[in-house]
Amino acid sequence: MFSHVFIGIDDFVRALRFYDALMQALGIAPLFVDRARPWAGWQVPGVPRPLFVIGVAHDGCARAAGNGQMVALLAASRRLVGHAQDVALAHGGTCEGAPGLRPEYHAHYYGAYFRDSEGNDLCVACHAPEG
To answer: The whole model's pTM is what?
Structure first.
């Protein structure tokens, strides 16, 4: 469904440190880093799309974190949801909701919510039953 997701950032060094750690925790591999542009991208190994990309705004203006906009990353297990949030918080993220079941979405939805080092709203979710 998606070709790529692009998240706007202002402080490339800080954001790269945050996303390198988060993506490594989720098993998502770096694809490129271009400090001159600046932008960076990651992808699931062996899967060409979608890409996850961070970078400064193309028009040169400051980025703005959207209210009501969130990117949710998939985790293979509930344990990995908690681990990913721990990594995010240790690298400058802020908690927006502790890891846990969210039965209002569906019986097995287990998610954690946080903002990245730039204020963008993120989630890591697992949809599989515990086990």
So the answer is: 0.91
